[in-house]
Design brief:
The protein is an alpha/beta fold and 244 residues long. It contains 13 helices and 7 strands.
């Protein structure tokens, strides 16, 4: 079965505990895993951004003060991911490598490791974030930003407006409101960045439906399960799939 992977699945191949990594890789060996430009954009906008953020904080404060800085941040999913990254590079640094060097290597190699063996498909969104690379500045900080420009997400939503309108009526009120915001913005001035980010789960399942991909895989069941059921796309949690 061809299966579209979301960011939680690909990043778990590197940052999750051994048991999760084994389950996910076992699952990937049993399906035909694919990602699209929109998902690569989301990966860079979240995971690569977090690697760069951690690298620059350590470059600015040193490791000790950086830990104090991070500890004061609200414990969001993003901050938890940053601590997972820190745990990974700290283990490697015990072998004598500098943490900054490890993070720079991780930034360059992480995408290759996470998407290894996964086929890349064009989804028609032309997400600009999938092409963002960043650069090292003379002051030693790595600079990367994710502006929205020249993408086709509004066109993609417009082309599938009837499907989205039908989907809206099948969803719970919270998810239905997100679908409504996509419909409204696409019909007027265009999809805003914040809306695109907030509705990414909806967009990913919509991509699968439009591209004829029968399955969507994610470690985040809550919204994906409902959206997939409404669009008649098979939802798979790789951990449950692999363990039967």
């Amino acid at each position: 079965m061809k299966c579209l992977l979301d960011t939680s699945v690909v990043i778990s191949r590197v940052l999750s505990k051994s048991k999760v990594r084994k389950a996910v890789n076992s699952f990937l060996g049993k399906v035909e895993p694919v990602v699209t430009t929109y998902i690569v954009g989301e990966f860079r906008r979240t995971v690569i951004r977090d690697v760069v953020f951690l690298r620059n904080v350590i470059h600015k404060y040193g490791l000790g003060e950086a830990l104090h800085f991070l500890a004061r941040l609200p414990r969001t999913r993003r901050v938890s991911n940053i601590f997972n990254l820190l745990g990974l590079v700290t283990k490697i640094s015990l072998d004598g490598f500098e943490i900054i060097d490890i993070l720079d290597l991780l930034r360059m190699r992480l995408e290759e490791q996470c998407f290894d063996g996964v086929k890349m498909l064009d989804d028609g969104t032309e997400c600009y974030h999938s092409r963002v690379l960043g650069n090292m500045s003379p002051d030693g900080f790595f600079r990367i930003s994710f502006p929205c420009r020249n993408c086709r997400i509004t066109n993609f939503i417009k082309e599938n407006l009837n499907l989205l309108k039908d989907l809206k009526g099948k969803l719970s009120s919270d998810l239905g409101s997100l679908a409504a915001s996509l419909i409204q913005e696409a019909s007027k001035s265009g999809i805003r960045w914040r809306t695109c980010r907030k509705t990414s789960d909806l967009i990913i399942v919509l991509i699968a439906k439009v591209k004829g991909i029968p399955g969507v895989a994610s470690l985040n069941e809550k919204d994906f399960k409902e959206i997939c059921a409404a669009l008649k796309v098979k939802f798979v949690n790789p951990i449950k799939f692999s363990t039967g």
